[in-house]
């Protein structure tokens, strides 16, 4: 009997979609702090896709949030349960695009977007859980499952609605077929050398100059050739911090700066140019992620500094327009913002079509773990290069994952464990479940005790 079958020989099906509200108290150390988000508590609406297959495998994934509202995100995931429970597992894993199309196609839920916001992120979490399950059943890490796949099958995973004026299925097949050339050698290189990373760990806005300098120097010692600083709250402060960082790392290390959507267009141009003396490499999220023409104006106004955005871009359609408008130099995908792997495949193909390098957003809860798979697939079987391409890395919360992101000499090592690296330890789920997990229950009791003194 196939281990994917049910015990009674019937067809294995999805039996449940569990959703858990997981939160970490990162705001207490100012980890993740920036000009727009001064007190993030990194959180996850965590999904477990359960089946009755004999192999006992589950699909794990999550939508990332920063604290308050995670219960809303979890409720959105729960609203998708009836669309998934009862689906045959073999068919689901053979065509993850089928669940993507079905969830995005629900006319009443679609009204809550369409294809953006909390509901779209919920769809992305469920779709990513399907991919995690599919990769586990194939006994491959997700990046290799994608890299080994036939170009035609991968092209069929993409929804071309609204993007055919920029990318057709035929063009996608051509790009993917071309990307296969020499893939085996690039896979060997990836496993041996890893994928280039940069670190944001020194640059959180709430950190002191002393901590910035210490962490920046440590990053260089650890092999990173790029770091990132948060900016946008106070110009004089930003100039001082960037000068301090440049003195700490020297002239040959790239320093990106990130405004987290803080500015209007003219302000973004003036502020970025005011930092020019200390050679910033890119300005990230200088204004609203929805302002395509604003990004184009900023790019023109800050040359030669590069403009990067993407972590809050809603879907493939907005990315298409950013590329068509020549509005960005660096495209930043996010593994948990859009509608899952399928939509990120579309975005990677669009970036390849327009010749724009992809440098993913990561950090948060598990984003490093997930997005490395997408970049590694891109290197092995699509773009074929890591030139001017780096994945963000932030050094916290990795210990909660069964297959954590590992950095060696400034590079992400290639994950070899089957799946999407999205599964958290059961103990972490039990401890940080909100509001009744062990940590939060004890925290609430301590607050009540302090109040009653």
Automatic annotation (TrEMBL):
Pfam families: MR_MLE_C, MR_MLE_N. The keyword Metal-binding applies. It is an enzyme of class 4 (lyase). It catalyses: L-fuconate = 2-dehydro-3-deoxy-L-fuconate + H2O. Residues 209-304 form the Mandelate racemase/muconate lactonizing enzyme C-terminal domain. Its cofactor is Mg(2+). Signal peptide: none annotated. InterPro entries: Enolase-like_C_sf, Enolase-like_N, Enolase_C-like, L-fuconate_dehydratase, Mandel_Rmase/mucon_lact_enz_CS, Mandelate_racemase_C, Mandelate_racemase_N_dom, RHMD-like. Its EC number is 4.2.1.68. The keyword Metal-binding applies. Keywords: Lyase, Magnesium, Metal-binding. This is L-fuconate dehydratase. It comes from Streptomyces laculatispora.
């Amino acid at each position: 009997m196939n281990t994917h079958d049910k015990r009674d020989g019937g067809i294995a099906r999805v039996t449940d979609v569990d959703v858990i509200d997981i939160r970490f108290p990162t705001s207490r150390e100012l980890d993740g702090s920036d000009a727009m988000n001064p007190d993030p508590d990194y959180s996850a609406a965590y999904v477990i896709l359960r089946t009755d297959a004999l192999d006992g495998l589950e699909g794990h994934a999550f939508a990332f949030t920063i604290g308050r509202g995670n219960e809303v995100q979890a409720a959105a995931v729960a609203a998708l349960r009836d669309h998934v429970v009862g689906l045959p597992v073999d068919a689901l894993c053979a065509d993850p695009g089928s669940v993507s199309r079905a969830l995005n196609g629900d006319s009443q839920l679609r009204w809550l977007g369409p294809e953006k916001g909390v509901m779209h992120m919920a769809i992305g979490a469920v779709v990513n859980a399907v991919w995690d399950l599919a990769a586990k059943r194939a006994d491959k890490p997700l990046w290799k499952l994608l890299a080994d796949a036939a170009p035609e099958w991968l092209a069929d995973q993409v929804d071309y609605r609204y993007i055919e004026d920029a990318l057709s299925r035929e063009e996608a097949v051509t790009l993917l077929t071309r990307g296969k050339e020499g893939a085996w050698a690039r896979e060997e290189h990836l496993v041996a050398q890893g994928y280039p990373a940069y670190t944001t760990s020194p640059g959180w806005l709430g950190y002191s100059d002393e901590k910035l300098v210490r962490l920046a120097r440590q990053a260089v010692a650890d092999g990173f050739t790029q770091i990132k600083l948060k900016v946008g709250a106070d110009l004089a402060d930003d100039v001082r911090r960037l000068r301090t960082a440049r003195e700490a790392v020297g002239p040959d290390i790239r320093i990106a700066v990130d405004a987290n959507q803080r500015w209007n267009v003219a302000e973004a141009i003036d502020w970025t140019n005011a930092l020019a003396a200390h050679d910033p490499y890119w300005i990230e999220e200088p204004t609203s992620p929805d302002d395509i023409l604003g990004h184009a104006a900023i790019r023109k106004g800050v040359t030669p500094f590069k403009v990067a955005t993407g972590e809050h871009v809603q879907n493939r359609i907005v990315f298409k327009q950013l590329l068509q408008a020549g509005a960005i130099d660096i495209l930043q995908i996010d593994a948990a913002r859009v509608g899952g792997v399928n939509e990120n495949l579309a975005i990677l193909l669009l970036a390849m079509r327009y010749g724009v390098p992809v440098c993913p957003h990561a950090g948060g809860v598990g984003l490093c773990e997930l997005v490395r798979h997408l970049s590694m697939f891109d290197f092995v079987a699509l773009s074929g290069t890591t030139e001017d391409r780096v994945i963000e890395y932030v050094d916290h919360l990795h210990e909660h994952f069964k297959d954590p992101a590992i950095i060696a000499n400034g590079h992400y090592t290639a994950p070899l464990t089957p799946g999407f690296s999205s599964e958290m330890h059961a103990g972490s789920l039990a401890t940080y479940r909100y509001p009744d997990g062990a940590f939060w229950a004890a925290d609430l009791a301590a607050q009540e005790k302090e109040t009653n003194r």
